[in-house]
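Quick check before the chapter quiz. The format below is the same one you will see on the exam, so make sure you can read both the input and the output lines.
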Amino acid sequence: MVTEQERQEILDTEHLRLLPIFFWVLAGLDIFISLYGLIYVGMGAMMAFVPWDESAPDAPPVFMGWFFMAIGLGFIVWFAGGGVLKILAGIWMRRRTHRIAILVAAALGATVSWPFGVVLAIFTYLVMMRPSVAILFDTPVPKVAPAPLAEQAPAVEQAEPEAAEPATD
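Here is the expected output.
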């Protein structure tokens, strides 16, 4: 029979195992979406750097090219930055460190990726605000023992030979 405390511990461990995976999937989506900004950067570069015929009445002004490039770069930085923050939050969650930073990353991630980021932020707050999870983040995670297949010779200390006692007859 599983006690209530053991059940909660299993539940917390499972949630802390799944949440980073969702953070990483959403981070990949954000980084992929950030590539859309390259279209604006390319259009802006064409408007700013391609020589236009001065007599053409429909030539765009040069400042519009710089404006498009700025919008595209801002788009790339916003979404790629949100993706990197989500990757870090997933890593921190796996290591069970930086609890407050994970909560901040979840809140900022909600603004970057609507609606999935909001759902992930709500679930993150529901899990991370539990007292049992807060305790897990306060205690250090035990180090994993090396794999048994790793060929490591155990460190054996050589015992110093004891001084031979004189034999008494």
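If your answer matched, good. The mean pLDDT is 86.
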